[in-house]
């Protein structure tokens, strides 16, 4: 519905399936093949924040409005000498913050891709945990053709997904790849007929939602930890603290402090 100030979203649609645990975030600029401007990214970040904070949400779907495009990257008409500029007099590359936010979100994010996922839009699907693609999906980097590049996750995560040689091919040649080619390369999890895209994506969401949210949360952090370096370790380690707070041993330390006594950890086993 709206951002933190209660303003209606203009560039995205944010929906939740009540009682289902599924949030869906749709980039809503089909006339621009769902290219994003800084304002679009700000709205996406608000929606992802909301999905993170809502304990009834277990999985998030990211998609694009219509069947022509998931997302075509940064809005080239708004490129300035300092990033992308819409309402401000200066440019931003705030999509990089969004990429980090998706990686750190402790719930699975599924990219549901119909049509083009290119440029910065291709990177958005790569940072999602899973990608379900329609058979009309087209993937690729366009940066080197339009004088741009993403030397962060756009290169490193791609290299992890498709291997270093294929990643070089994708960036150096800037070709487009069909959904079937993308599946063979390990870029997407599954390809389905366009008419079945949402149904199949929801099936994956529901299957995930049947499983332990904590197991999934820790696995996501663990799967990202090496690639995300210290920030990845911090995310993984935060889960250890979160779980420890729920134990009697953790609680003993807090209670002793509050009761102004020496903590007694002697009853807790030193497990092998
Ligand atoms: C996506 C693609 C291949 C679609 O082609 P087609 O033939 O289906 O559509 P068309 O006619 O090109 O596009 C429809 C309308 O959308 C606009 C077009 O200008 C066109 O507008 P009108 O002529 O109808 O007024 N449009 C599409 N993509 C746009 C974009 N990204 N920015 C602004 N307007 C866009 C084809 O449209 C295409 O190749 N698009 C450009 C893809 C691209 O180069 N993206 C930027 C990569 S750089 C990036 O995203 C980036 C980064 O490298 C680093 C950090 C942050 C971002």
Automatic annotation (TrEMBL):
Reaction(s) catalysed (UniProt annotation): 2-succinylbenzoyl-CoA + H(+) = 1,4-dihydroxy-2-naphthoyl-CoA + H2O
EC number in record: 4.1.3.36
A GO cellular component annotation in the UniProt record: peroxisome
GO biological process: menaquinone biosynthetic process
Entry keyword set: Lyase
Keyword Transmembrane helix attached: no
Protein name per its UniProtKB record: 1,4-dihydroxy-2-naphthoyl-CoA synthase
Organism: Amborella trichopoda
Residue numbers of the full-length protein present here: 86 to 357 of 357
